[in-house]
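TEACHING EXERCISE
Course module: macromolecular assemblies
Task: Read the component lines below, then compare them to the predicted structure of the full complex.
Student: A.B.
Group: 4
Components provided:
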Amino acid sequence: MLGYTITQWLFGILSFLAIMFALMVVFSRNPVNSVLYLVLTFFCIAGHYLLLNAQFLAVVHIAVYAGAIMVLFLFVIMLMNLNQDSEPQKTAISKAIAGIVGGLLLVVLVGALRGTELLGIQQYGHSEIGLVKNLGKVLFSEFLFPFEIVSILLLSALVGAIMIGKKEIK
Amino acid sequence: MINGISINMYLLLSTVLFIIGAVGVMARRNTIILFMCIELMLNAVNLLLVAFSALHNDSSGQVFVFFIMAVAAAEVAVGLAILSMIYRNSKSIDSDLLSKLKH
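Instructor-supplied answer key:
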């Protein structure tokens, strides 16, 4: 197909969709639509993970982001009853400045990264590092201490969220 | 090259996603959408970490992505709790109104 392999076609389509949905997140007026477009962006990124042989990470990404975090966003939006287009808008000039700053940042980053030559990389071994078995071995041997610290972080975030969200603290 | 795709393409894609998130943070006033744009930027970085992990055939990058996901979940939980508290007190989540600490 025009000299491209199927993987390259998939990469192109997923990239295009991810960028389009990401733009829709920023530009749609209704917050609920933004959340739904963000979920679609996350599905595209999960597809990229599958292309990169990170199968377990793709599943975790969908479960954690599309399943948990985005549902939390939707709950909060519906609790606040913000699903009408009542958001005050920034002035046109500050929007234009934001666009210019973003464009300049894009130019700088692309210019800095374009000529990158990655030297000294030799690929070896098999590409099964994304499977549960191999990731679990690394996670529970080499990264055991950060793993325990993350559990404490999640616990403290849980306690903090409840403390902040309570009506009044006696 | 990862499966016939150059790493430069992944660099470009992640840069574009990150810039979209950054422009969203600068251009919107709804605080919930600012949070979503921060998630978008985190995901651009995650994608690049996984791409380099596949390039080097090293699973450390994917473990870092796990940790970033856990930190993002904690951040969203606390952030949305703060946001609902602000909404309860001021009936608005406009980010331009939250400037009391400035004075």
